């Protein structure tokens, strides 16, 4: 009898539908030369860029209002390749379709993109390829002053700020062209007979209602674990709050524990691509799980995550270390100043003396104090 | 179901109903492939994408492993959809599936940009003597479309649409009346439902009607559909060559011009411009204004002067405020919107710029009797909600999320088990623009009407043991076809569509057990 009372209506009327909201995909490509040099037998960055373009096209093909952004993280800086606020993409489109204007004659990239390609795809692909070549030139020219520090954390926060902007800001006042296509739609539709001025100023609430989803894909071949720990962790928390998942496509030989944590904490996918030759298939399957269907798919991710933290003093990762009792800052050794490097609280000298007595005396006791993790 | 899903569903239904040779001919055009892909459900899109660059057929068992158990129903739905569109083919053993080779080739070409040159329309390279800009096109499109809508509600002093449009409205059952004279036509209940939809859904309704007509005129449906889908991928503000179109498509131009989908200066002009109505055919309709807003704007513009200054800010946005006590205030003077509200609201008083009313059981029931669903009403109220209501709802939601995340973040750093509950929490919150009491009550009033539901289906009984019953009934409920089950009597009932699935599953299980 109980089956009748609860079953029938709920089952048949409220079917679980995954809605088809537009989504924003931000691709971060780590182009630090060292990592790519190491896997030169397997793939080249050209090949990967091609696959990424197909991947972005595929994302755009899902929904007319879908958007993409592309950030390159070079050893010197992080840079938005698409959308670039300084470039009017309408210009590019017409100049390249009238074949060879002065601005892009010296570049060989526009030929890579067929001019018959679907408009949305072409705009993105052309822009990314052109800019990517510029980035390569810059790296080649500035190869001496490479300081071998990954700028991935910077790129990640750029991606997050852009995502935040796209998710909450009124799209019609943003200058970026990825949204311009959208904003002209909403503005133009309004200006059919009304006046545009009032339109753009009042369209804020309606736009913020349409729920945009977002995710970030990081592609890196960097095997050095030189990602800055604190900025990355902060980005992870920000992403958690924005409900943006961070997916990681890791090439090369080593796993990156911080990026693993990033994917794990944001419900993203961490996938170590051992053989990058057929990467387009990997991208369009494992990395193609849209936020809207994420609750229904078993993510192809590794649950075996190394939750290592990094030392605030040396920047190296630590397995066992000291923790500041005030701000939970992690240290592999006690700083000589006797102060916490993050919050500057002064540690108790007696305990410092006790902790730094050295292992020769009473090694058992020392460990006990260590695991209690008490300084000050 | 939101109205954008609704139009997708109807288009899909039409496509599924096409015979297979027509379907595979459709897949020869890359633009059509893209459009059809966009119309699919997210899950189906995911399946297609995974198979697109995979040269080997995919085992059905693998598909099962990708999905979480509670998503079985979604999986079956999307696979069913794909099979009936003939986008996927099963191999002889029925264990592996692969993509339709034509579709796969063309969609791949579309993504990699290696399709033949005029797949997305043939751009006019010479400049037009009579230059046309985007705002002109928008004006043209909205004036054409609004003429139709105004005519339907009988706004005074509007032009009468052309006879082809009138015959569409009539054959689609949106308007009815004796004879052919436009004065005799009256809007029907279906017509009012039509007005409740958004622009995209409306255009598709008319286009599908148009497709039915073309079949009677012996036009090639593939040609017609291809043209419609190509239109959706054209670039706004650019002109395209008429000469690259087939004869059927040229003859369509005149009709499409009547709906405001394309602009062609004269019949003999060698170029045509797609309007925004056409270029957004396959996209999400969120970016478009709803028809009633359009009409309101038109009215505001015709009133002119200062009044417009006051009206447009609210007029553009939506006007309806609903309180938890079921009172409704709409800041509107548009006859169309008032007429629509009158379908399901007991309107009490009218002022120069607003109407007040009350949602009552009777008013909702009368709407339901007219074939309007509760979801349609709720959707309408949501899209037309006053910006203040939306802001309020958003603030509430933000607060809830803020609370959850700040609650979580303390533990989220390292402990994976805390994350699971976090996701659950986040998923719980939805943007509630309308007061939940009102939404629930409207739904309950609908449920009142169907206290007895009838299902066509099959009864399974006489199981030999409890375990056999359990596996089968569990399977049926996972797939979402189970209607009723009784554990003690060992009987359960599945819907007619689910019968084959469950029977197949039973056969498989039964055989394996025997071996």
From TrEMBL, chain A:
GO molecular function annotation: zinc ion binding
Keywords from the UniProt entry: DNA damage, DNA repair, Metal-binding, Nucleus, Transcription, Transcription regulation, Zinc, Zinc-finger
One GO term describing the cellular component: transcription factor TFIIH core complex
A Pfam match: Tfb4
GO BP terms: nucleotide-excision repair; regulation of DNA-templated transcription; transcription initiation at RNA polymerase II promoter
Signal peptide: none
Subcellular location, record wording: Nucleus
InterPro entries for the chain: TFIIH_Tfb4/GTF2H3, vWFA_dom_sf
Start and end residues of each stretch annotated as Disordered: 92-111, 184-208
Family: Belongs to the TFB4 family.
Subunit structure: Component of the 7-subunit TFIIH core complex composed of XPB/SSL2, XPD/RAD3, SSL1, TFB1, TFB2, TFB4 and TFB5, which is active in NER. The core complex associates with the 3-subunit CTD-kinase module TFIIK composed of CCL1, KIN28 and TFB3 to form the 10-subunit holoenzyme (holo-TFIIH) active in transcription.
Physiological role: Component of the general transcription and DNA repair factor IIH (TFIIH) core complex, which is involved in general and transcription-coupled nucleotide excision repair (NER) of damaged DNA and, when complexed to TFIIK, in RNA transcription by RNA polymerase II. In NER, TFIIH acts by opening DNA around the lesion to allow the excision of the damaged oligonucleotide and its replacement by a new DNA fragment. In transcription, TFIIH has an essential role in transcription initiation.
The protein's name in its UniProt record: General transcription and DNA repair factor IIH subunit TFB4
Protein's organism: Scheffersomyces stipitis (strain ATCC 58785 / CBS 6054 / NBRC 10063 / NRRL Y-11545) (Yeast)
Classification lineage: Eukaryota, Fungi, Dikarya, Ascomycota, Saccharomycotina
Automatic annotation (TrEMBL), chain B:
InterPro entries: Tfb2_C, TFIIH_p52/Tfb2
GO molecular function: ATPase activator activity; double-stranded DNA binding; RNA polymerase II general transcription initiation factor activity
BP GO annotations: nucleotide-excision repair; transcription initiation at RNA polymerase II promoter
Keyword DNA damage: yes
GO CC annotation terms, alphabetical: nucleotide-excision repair factor 3 complex; transcription factor TFIIH core complex; transcription factor TFIIH holo complex
Function: Component of the general transcription and DNA repair factor IIH (TFIIH) core complex which is involved in general and transcription-coupled nucleotide excision repair (NER) of damaged DNA.
Official protein name in the record: RNA polymerase II transcription factor B subunit 2
Organism whose genome encodes this protein: Scheffersomyces stipitis (strain ATCC 58785 / CBS 6054 / NBRC 10063 / NRRL Y-11545) (Yeast)
Gene name for this UniProt entry: TFB2
């Amino acid at each position: 009898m109980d089956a009748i009372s609860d079953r029938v209506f709920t089952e048949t009327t409220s079917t679980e539908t995954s809605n088809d909201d537009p989504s924003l995909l931000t691709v971060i490509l780590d182009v630090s030369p060292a990592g790519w040099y190491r896997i030169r037998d397997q793939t080249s960055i050209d090949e990967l860029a091609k696959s990424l373009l197909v991947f972005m096209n595929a994302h755009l093909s899902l929904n007319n209002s879908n958007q993409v952004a592309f950030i390159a993280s070079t050893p010197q800086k992080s840079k938005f390749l698409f959308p670039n606020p300084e470039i009017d993409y309408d210009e590019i489109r017409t100049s390249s379709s009238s074949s060879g204007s002065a601005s892009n004659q010296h570049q060989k990239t526009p030929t890579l993109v067929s001019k018959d390609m679907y408009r949305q795809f072409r705009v993105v692909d052309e822009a990314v390829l052109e800019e990517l070549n510029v980035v390569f030139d810059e790296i080649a020219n500035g190869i001496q002053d490479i300081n071998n520090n990954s700028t991935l954390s910077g790129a990640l926060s750029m991606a997050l700020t852009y995502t935040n902007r796209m998710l909450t800001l009124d799209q019609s006042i943003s200058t970026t062209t990825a949204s311009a296509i959208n904003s002209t739609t909403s503005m133009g539709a309004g200006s059919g007979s009304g006046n545009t001025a009032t339109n753009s100023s009042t369209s804020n609430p309606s736009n913020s209602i349409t729920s945009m989803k977002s995710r970030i894909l990081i592609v890196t071949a960097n095997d050095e674990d030189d990602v800055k720990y604190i900025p990355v962790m902060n980005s992870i928390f920000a992403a958690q709050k924005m409900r943006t998942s961070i997916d990681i496509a890791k090439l090369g030989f080593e796993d990156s524990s911080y990026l693993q944590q990033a994917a794990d904490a944001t419900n993203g996918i961490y996938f170590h691509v051992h053989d990058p030759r057929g990467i387009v298939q990997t991208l369009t399957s494992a990395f193609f799980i849209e936020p809207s269907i994420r609750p229904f798919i078993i993510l192809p991710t590794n649950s075996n995550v190394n939750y290592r933290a990094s030392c605030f003093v040396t920047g190296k990762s630590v397995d066992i270390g000291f923790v500041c009792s005030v701000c939970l800052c992690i240290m592999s050794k006690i700083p000589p100043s006797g102060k916490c490097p993050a919050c500057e609280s002064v540690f108790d000298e007696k305990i410092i003396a006790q902790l730094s007595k050295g292992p020769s005396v009473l090694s058992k006791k020392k460990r006990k104090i260590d695991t209690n993790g008490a300084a000050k | 179901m939101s109205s954008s899903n609704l139009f997708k569903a109807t288009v899909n239904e039409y496509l599924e109903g096409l015979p297979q040779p027509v379907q595979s001919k459709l897949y020869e055009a890359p633009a059509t492939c893209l459009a059809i892909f966009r119309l699919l459900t997210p899950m189906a899109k995911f399946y297609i994408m995974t198979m697109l660059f995979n040269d080997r057929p995919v085992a059905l068992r693998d598909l099962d492993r990708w999905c979480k158990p509670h998503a079985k129903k979604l999986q079956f739905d999307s696979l069913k959809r794909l099979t009936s569109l003939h986008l996927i083919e099963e191999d002889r053993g029925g264990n592996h599936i692969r993509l339709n080779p034509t579709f796969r080739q063309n969609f791949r070409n579309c993504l990699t940009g290696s399709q033949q040159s005029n797949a997305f329309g043939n751009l006019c390279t010479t400049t037009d003597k009579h230059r046309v800009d985007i705002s002109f096109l928008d004006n043209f499109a909205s004036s054409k479309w609004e003429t139709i809508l105004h005519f339907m509600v009988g706004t005074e002093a509007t032009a009468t649409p052309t006879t082809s449009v009138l015959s569409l409205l009539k054959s689609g059952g949106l308007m009815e009346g004796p004879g052919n004279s436009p004065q005799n036509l009256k809007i029907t209940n279906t017509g009012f439902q039509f007005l409740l939809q958004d622009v995209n859904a409306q255009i598709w309704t008319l286009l599908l009607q148009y497709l039915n007509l073309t079949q009677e005129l012996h036009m090639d449906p593939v040609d017609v559909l291809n043209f419609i889908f190509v239109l959706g991928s054209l670039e706004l503000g650019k002109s395209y060559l008429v000469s690259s179109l087939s004869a059927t498509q040229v003859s369509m131009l005149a009709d499409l011009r009547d709906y405001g989908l394309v602009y062609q200066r004269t019949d003999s002009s060698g170029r045509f411009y797609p309007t925004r109505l056409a270029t957004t055919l396959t996209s999400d309709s969120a970016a478009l204004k709803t028809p009633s807003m359009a009409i309101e704007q038109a009215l505001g513009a015709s009133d002119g002067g200062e009044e417009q200054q006051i009206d447009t800010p609210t007029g553009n946005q939506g006007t309806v405020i609903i309180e938890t006590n079921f009172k409704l205030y709409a800041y509107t003077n548009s006859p169309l919107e008032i007429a629509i509200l009158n379908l399901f609201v007991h309107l009490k008083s009218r002022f120069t710029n607003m109407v007040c009313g009350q949602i009552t059981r009777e008013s909702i029931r009368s709407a339901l009797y007219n074939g309007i669903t509760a979801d349609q009403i709720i959707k309408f109220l949501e899209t037309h909600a006053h910006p203040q209501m939306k802001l309020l709802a958003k603030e509430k939601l933000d607060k809830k999320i803020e609370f959850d995340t700040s609650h979580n973040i303390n533990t989220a750093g390292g402990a994976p088990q805390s994350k699971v509950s976090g996701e659950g929490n986040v998923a719980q919150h939805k943007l509630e623009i309308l007061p939940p009491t009102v939404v629930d009550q409207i739904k309950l009033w609908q449920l009142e009407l169907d206290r007895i539901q009838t299902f066509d289906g099959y009864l399974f009984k006489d199981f030999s043991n409890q375990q056999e019953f359990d596996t089968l009934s569990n399977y049926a409920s996972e797939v979402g076809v189970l209607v009723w089950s009784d554990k003690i009597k060992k009987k359960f009932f599945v819907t007619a569509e689910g019968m084959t699935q469950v029977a197949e599953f039973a056969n498989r299980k039964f055989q394996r057990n025997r071996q």
